[in-house]
Amino acid sequence: MGGLWVDYEKGTDGATLNLDSPRNQMTSIPGLYAAGEADYQYHGANRLGANALLSCLTGGELTAQGITAYLREMDTDAASLDSKWISDARQRHESHYAGLANPNGKENPYQLQAELADTMWNYCGIWRLQSDLEKARGILDDLTQRAKNCAVVDGGTWTNQATPYVRSVQHMVEMSKAIVGGALLRNESRGAHFKMDTPERDDSKWLRTTKAMWTENGPQFNHDEEVECNVIAPRARKYK
Fold first, then answer.
1. What pLDDT was estimated at residue 238?
2. Which terminus of the chain is more solvent-facing, meaning fewer CB atoms within 10 Å of its CB: N or C?
3. Whole-angstrom distance, CA of residue 216 vs CA of residue 117
4. Confidence of residue 22 (pLDDT cuts 50, 70, 90)
5. Of 29, 32, 53, whose CA–CA distance to 41 is shortest?
6. What's the whole-model pTM score?
7. What is the pLDDT of residue 204?
8. What's the whole-number mean pLDDT along residues 60-85?
9. How far apart, in Å, are the Cα atoms of 100 and each of 77, 117, 162, 167, 174?
């Protein structure tokens, strides 16, 4: 399972959480919280809804407590912010949106999405090979450029489904690049990530969280966060 990275703060005992901390369930963007299936999940044993149920119980409660603590520590509110920040952001997004509505584009966004789905299924599915992942990365680089030249048949701003779909396809490609890039770097097999080149789990090197950050030149990866297993030791996923 994957999703937005979220933070936690340990309690004084080093084993439990500090429930009064605004860091709990906060993303790398201050004030932005993620919970449920939007954040990265708690374990790899995701069968019978194990992570989904835990997300509701744990993520929901921690998010509410974290937001409450964050608001309590704020010395300003949104109403007191300079309105220019909001107007500039709105203008930036409106300009980007207008740029997507290109009636003269050469690419069909629905065809691109189908090619993207086939690429991820064929080369980054249940069984993974380094060579297949390299192929996927090359195809994704090509799709990135093609997705910038999509034809949009509806240039209106009311109930327009075509333009938002182009944006969604572009975002899908970016997310796929993060998935494939992370899989290429992780030279082991763990949970749902099974790489046939390296079929064994390697806790000495890879008991770490893969974090991807968006940049204009593609995702940048960071593996500096170790996974703490002081309560339950990691073990192989077996269905026998």
1. 67
2. C
3. 23
4. very high
5. 53
6. 0.83
7. 93
8. 90
9. 34, 22, 10, 7, 16
Residue 69: the pLDDT is 96
Instruction: Indicate the SS3 state at residue 211.
Output: strand
Domains belonging to the chain, first-starting first, are: 1-76 (no CATH), 88-240 (1.20.58.100)
In the block, tokens 């835990």 appear at 54
d(CA 113, CA 191): 27
The dihedral built from the CA positions of residue 223, 224, 228 and 234, taken in this order, carries a sign that is: positive
Maximum distance among all alpha carbons in the chain? 62
Q: Of 30, 104, 43, which is closest to residue 73 (Cα–Cα)?
A: 30
Distance separating alpha carbons of residues 56 and 62, to the nearest angstrom:
10
160/140: higher pLDDT: 140
Distance CA 213, CA 217 (A): 11
Q: Return d(Cα 213, Cα 224) in angstroms, integer.
A: 13
Alpha-carbon gap, residue 112 to 167, rounded angstroms: 12
